[in-house]
Design a protein that fits this description.
Elements (H helix, E strand, L loop, with lengths): L2 E7 L7 H12 L3 E7 L5 H10 L4 E4 L13 E2 L1 H6 L4 E5 L2 E5 L2 H12 L7 E5 L3 H12 L4 E6 L3 H9 L7 E4 L8 E6 L17 E9 L7 H9 L4 E3 L2 H16 L6 H9 L1
The structure holds 2'-monophosphoadenosine-5'-diphosphate.
Length: 270
């Protein structure tokens, strides 16, 4: 019997996960099947039980289920609790064990790109759900300063409060960044989805600094153009993070870390 895996979300047709995991399976010589399953929000509890009954060994979870699914797991890892979201499910007796590989994927992609964080000044632009997943690995790397800025000031303040036991997160509005210099600027807003770029003060990026966007594809364009105008030494989108978080899920399921370079190359070519 071939082991079965799937990604669940709504909508799901656009998901790159089936392609990514099929290539991981080929490159590691693993025999597995990977499906995309459309699950409407109200059907989530039923779908999780059904997929378990059908013998699925692991699931990836994408929008809009990443928060809700945590309540339906028999257990949730510490990093998923910290992120407030679950993106990977492992089949266990009686249900699903929840984990979150987004932060790990982000961290591995920074490492792949040679972007250092230790002792550096880091700015995260945006304070939505995605930021909770990356704060843990960033703080663990001991930056000199970690600032989260947002239009709406109470969101970074809430994040700073949530993470105060883990490390120092400095909350700011975008306007209050004026005069600051950062070695790494991470765009975590969804502004790019509507072709926009948050309004930031000029000259925020230090010489030789790097810019990283959690999004990719068309949504990356406004931040890419901004970062290029700031003369960033490295301008990266989040496609590498997507592949690395998938590789971390694959590793949880199969016990082997797949190579990621070929998959990333295939996605860029597509
Ligand atoms: P995600 O889960 O992807 O992080 P989210 O929780 O909806 O998505 O958060 C979206 C983030 O993008 C927020 O930080 C939001 O800023 P506000 O909290 O001030 O709304 C930010 N954002 C979205 N559109 C934006 C725009 N046009 N300009 C600046 N920030 C924007």
């Amino acid at each position: 019997m071939t082991d079965r895996y799937a990604v669940i979300g709504h909508p799901i047709a656009h998901s790159k996960s089936p392609l990514i995991h099929a290539q991981f399976a080929r490159e590691t010589g693993q025999d597995l099947a990977y499906d995309a399953v459309d699950v409407e929000p109200e059907m989530l509890p039923f779908a999780l039980r059904q997929l378990h009954d059908e013998g699925y060994r692991g699931l990836n979870v994408t929008l809009p289920h990443k928060t809700e699914v945590a309540q339906l797991c028999v257990g949730v890892s510490e990093r998923a609790q910290q992120a407030g979201a679950v993106n990977t499910l492992l089949r266990v007796d009686g249900g699903w064990q929840g984990d979150n590989t987004d932060g790990d994927g982000f961290w591995r992609d920074l490492t792949r790109l040679g972007i250092g964080v230790a002792g550096r000044r880091v700015l995260i632009v945006g304070a939505g759900g995605a930021v909770r997943g990356i704060l843990g690995p960033l703080l663990a790397a001991r930056p000199a300063l970690l600032v989260v800025s947002n239009r709406n000031p109470w969101k970074p303040e809430a994040l700073a409060e949530q993470f105060k036991e883990v490390g120092s997160v400095v909350p700011r509005t975008h306007l209050a960044l004026k005069g600051d210099r950062y070695d790494l600027i991470v765009n975590a807003t969804s502004a790019g989805l509507s072709g926009a770029m948050p309004r930031l003060p000029g000259q925020l990026l230090a010489d030789g600094g790097a810019c990283y966007d959690l999004s990719y594809g068309a949504a990356f364009a406004p931040f890419r153009d901004w970062a290029t105008a700031q003369k960033a030494a490295i301008v990266a989108d989040g496609l590498g993070m997507l592949v690395e978080q998938a590789a971390s899920a694959f590793e949880i399921w199969r016990g082997v870390r797949p190579p990621t370079a070929g998959v990333l190359q295939a996605l860029r070519a597509a």
